[in-house]
Design goal:
The structure is a homodimer. By secondary structure, chain A is α/β, with parallel strands linked by helices. Chain A has helices at residues 4-10, 38-41, 45-53, 70-77, 89-96, 131-142, 200-217, 240-244, 255-263, 276-286, 299-305, 309-327, 374-378, 390-397, and strands at residues 18-23, 55-60, 105-115, 121-123, 153-160, 163-169, 225-233, 248-252, 267-268, 292-297, 333-337, 354-359, 384-386. Chain A contains 14 helices and 13 strands.
Amino acid sequence: MADFDLLRTLVQPAQTKIVLLVMDGLGGLPRAEDDRTELEAAHTPHMDRLAREGCLGQHYPVGIGITSGSGPGHLGLFGYDPLKYEIGRGVLEAVGIGFHVTPRDVCARGNFCTLDDQGRIIDRRAGRISTEECARLVHKLNNAHIKLDADVEVFVEPVQDYRFVVVMRGDGLAGQIEDTDPQRVGAQPLPARARDAASERTAALFNRWIAQALEVIRDEHPANGLTLRGFAKEPGLPKFQDVYGLRAAAIAVYPMYRGVAALVGMARIDHQARTVQEQFEVAARIWPDYDFFFIHVKYTDSRGEDGNFAAKQAVIEEVDAALPALLALKPDVLIITGDHSTPSQLRSHSWHPVPLLLWAPATARRDGSTHFGERACARGGLGTFHARDIMPLALAHAQRLQKFGA
Amino acid sequence: MADFDLLRTLVQPAQTKIVLLVMDGLGGLPRAEDDRTELEAAHTPHMDRLAREGCLGQHYPVGIGITSGSGPGHLGLFGYDPLKYEIGRGVLEAVGIGFHVTPRDVCARGNFCTLDDQGRIIDRRAGRISTEECARLVHKLNNAHIKLDADVEVFVEPVQDYRFVVVMRGDGLAGQIEDTDPQRVGAQPLPARARDAASERTAALFNRWIAQALEVIRDEHPANGLTLRGFAKEPGLPKFQDVYGLRAAAIAVYPMYRGVAALVGMARIDHQARTVQEQFEVAARIWPDYDFFFIHVKYTDSRGEDGNFAAKQAVIEEVDAALPALLALKPDVLIITGDHSTPSQLRSHSWHPVPLLLWAPATARRDGSTHFGERACARGGLGTFHARDIMPLALAHAQRLQKFGA
């Protein structure tokens, strides 16, 4: 129900602090032996206390039955309907390696490939070259003084194995461009073709870049070719400060989550934290400077994708053990949830609703919950809702929304 | 998801009776001493029996996190999306004092103010003159024979202290007009300026009225000036009879709730009832003449806004004690709920979901509830939904909706 035009008219200033603590892929499925999920099996005395003092519910990141990727999952948490707002694949790849995407950028994902002497693709992944080899080739491309228009810059960055990103920066660029990857061997890479008039110039610039880049790597082996796909302009999302009146900070270990947060206007906090405890210490350091703190814990998802129930449970327990440091900051509103479910039994993201805990000492309607878990959340006082309703709820409990109508 | 076009195609006649019993501001927060809300703490044997025989749920008047005013709260209960349908401030003020607003009316809220000899505002509230003084000035204005077009009538009515309403009645009037209140001292009142072409004539008429009204009060002190704001035309809402096929009656003590009900086509029942018991007696008297009975209890909200937990609880108990008189009428569908939450701890409206009890002896799916309270409602069989879904639910249980599709 997040209607940004409505929220803009209702937002009022306050001195309150909101923490959104995201355990990536939090939701799980009960295992056979004791019918408990990772969250239900975990020893979480602090979260259980917060559940008793707060209120539970569960949310759908995108919609019922829809398995969400990390990008849409986080957009949902931040209040943006993922079906309306989209972060293009090229941009997501760029922010995923920590590249600072600007509103003047068009990003594309690249694959090195192997071409035959007719220019036809014979290996779409260039024999899965190593990340080091990828970095060497990217370095070579960046040093080749490829010529484009004087007011356009190009950045090439290695990702992993045969994958890289290309970012073109300039005024008036647009990203409605077809993939050059023909998605099969035996075909030549396609030219970058604009889907609309506004993208014609950008497509032509990418074609000029591709032609010169192919000259640079023509004698390489096996990576003597390349394809680009997922062209996307920086999405121009409404910003947290503008929509919610919040100075927001992202405390994330993985670049992609910092990047997505930056796209909605959050400050990307530089830090060396590697543990949850250290992330909370970063929050303490910057506490006076921000109103909203997005703290992202990655390893719940990673261990879920590994299929390791016990290890995912252990990450949840690590978060719980660190919680006193966060609570010592006395947030006015603390929301603990995930961006999607990643049941370790499925070893992948899933469509199951995501448990959510809302703690707000002054205003939460306690719902009789005694612990934080999927089944308690399904019966919680907040009911079942869309992820995009979380931000209005947080703002309300932070006394940051005026009454609607008389 | 009340879709009026859909409902119109499905509505069928029936002999059934629906009662919507609204305890204003019903929802609360649990107090520390026993973790109970006002509704949970209240001794409500009749409602608890209805909960056992019926089905519970909770609703959001406008949306998650949004604190609703009384106008949008009631529009939601009546099935109108408050984000789509709006009752302008001037109209709400007029109906709030019992003025019968018609489709030919444009209403504005007025403030008496104090002007200096340059016509600049030196006190926006004219020293907060008494309601009696306000009534005297309004009487003077109404008797001054202010000249406008022959086919236009003007009504001025006192509200409270320095506040009054002006209603202009005529064909082709429109309300897209800027406030004349400059919202600060030291400035002259602004002319009424139309925001669209359709409102040009109405704005000009208001300016002619203002100029003559200022002559009438020019020698008054301190109220020698006035400002107007919240210009609004009668909203032209779809009517209960047309959308739902219901002959509807409003039994409310406060004029504003009768007025809002009248705007959706309910009959405004004149009565002297002051207690809930007496309101139910009014329902009994008019029972054969209507299909739908909106009964509004104000004091749950008033006592919540006073911060008086025990007094709000007592109002709920008064309603419960009176219920046998209502049940003796044998309604086919009885819905007991609120238009928003007003927790006495917050002394104000809040965004928390509102408990709802649906009793329909023939068709309610009993959900195992044993009593009526916020937490029972959060776990109730109806789940969590938008207020605008209540009317379709009531119609369905009243056998007033046909099957959709074959």
